[in-house]
Specification:
The chain is α/β, with parallel strands linked by helices and 319 residues long. The protein is 31% helix and 14% strand. The strands form 2 sheets. A 6-stranded parallel sheet has the order 7-6-8-9-10-11, sandwiched between helices. Strands 2-1-3-4-5 form a 5-stranded parallel sheet.
Length: 319
């Protein structure tokens, strides 16, 4: 009888807090699921496993060197910067990620942030629950300026699958969509706009590009200075794309009007973060990817990645 494949899931809780299933992976081997794994637990919990899965637990060269049985690393996400790919490749370890699973959900939250900035629905609801409507002299009231999106310019930075979906939704709202991508040919010629011009022209700038050495601090004091004073910045991509100190200064000084962020440079948020408490900065805790539908697709594709590797025809490989 062939020995079962030993599989360890190092931080399974965010992908599956109990509302979906690991059954697909369990059919492929002996699976141990850990909700969370601290840095000093990685080696012990991965020991003897031929396949490990991680979302945010880093797998360094030092860790790989101590796991002689390891042959496959599955990333429960699209981004794979937590894996030392060079060390994995040197050992012949296959690394697969899951691209594209969260496109609709991320685009949805992008516009959730935009719509909250435009109508402040939660703030108005809170005011009503605080009985402000009962004492109002008029039949309606506002607690913040309201903004119509139609006719405004949406600047999409990064024109991959998510950027394209955001652009499509923007057009449905009547926004004038322009876009920048490092590879210009990926953007339709009629909307392609160099980054500097996009920052100057846009009423809303939304980031959908990967984190690379070239895109780190893409939005800093210099780029914020190019934006309109009534512009909004949205980031549902990667926290380090934005210099948070420069953004805080821009929000305080009126360089730009508002921001909506789902990601930060360090997660969870550090105590007394520079953006904490700024009323013109919406911050959600990295939830764009986390709808049940999106997480179900993530796990389904994760199973397919492992099945393909077992069949000696790996897919979605990054190493």
């Amino acid at each position: 009888m062939q020995e079962q494949l030993k599989i360890s899931i190092l931080d399974g809780f965010t992908a599956n807090p109990g509302d979906t299933s690991w059954a697909g992976l369990e059919a492929l081997g002996n699976v141990t699921v850990y909700d969370r794994t601290a840095s000093d637990q990685i080696i012990e919990r991965s020991q003897g496993a031929a396949a490990i899965f991680t979302n945010k637990v880093p797998i360094s060269a030092e860790t790989i060197a101590q796991l002689p049985d390891l042959k496959f690393i599955g990333v429960l996400a699209t981004g794979y910067n937590i894996i030392d790919l060079e060390a994995a490749a040197a050992r012949g370890i296959t690394v697969s990620n899951v691209p594209g699973y969260s496109t609709d959900s991320v685009a949805q939250l992008t516009f959730g942030l935009i719509l909250d900035l435009s109508f402040h629905a939660a703030a108005h609801s809170q005011a009503v629950h605080n009985r402000a409507w009962e004492t109002c002299e008029d039949f309606c009231f506002t607690v913040a300026p309201l903004t119509e999106l139609a006719g405004k310019t949406l600047g999409v930075v990064g024109y991959g699958t998510i950027g394209q979906q955001v652009a499509a939704i923007g057009k449905a709202f009547g926004l004038n969509v322009i876009a920048y991508n490092r590879t210009e040919s990926k953007v339709p010629a009629e909307i392609y706009t160099p980054l500097e011009d996009l920052l100057k022209q846009s009423d809303i700038v939304t980031l959908h590009c990967p984190l690379t050495p070239d895109t780190a601090d893409l939005i800093d004091a210099a780029s914020l200075d190019l934006m309109k004073p009534n512009a909004w910045l949205i980031n549902t991509s990667r926290g380090p794309l934005v210099n948070e100190i420069d953004l805080a200064d821009a929000l305080k000084n009126g360089t730009i009007a508002a921001a909506g962020l789902d990601v930060l440079r360090q997660e969870p948020m550090v105590k007394d973060h520079t953006l904490l408490g700024l009323q013109n900065c919406l911050i959600t805790p990295h939830i764009a990817w986390a709808t049940r539908e999106s997480r179900a697709r993530l796990i389904d594709q994760t199973v397919k990645n492992l099945e393909a590797w077992i069949s000696a025809a790996p897919i979605n490989t990054v190493a």
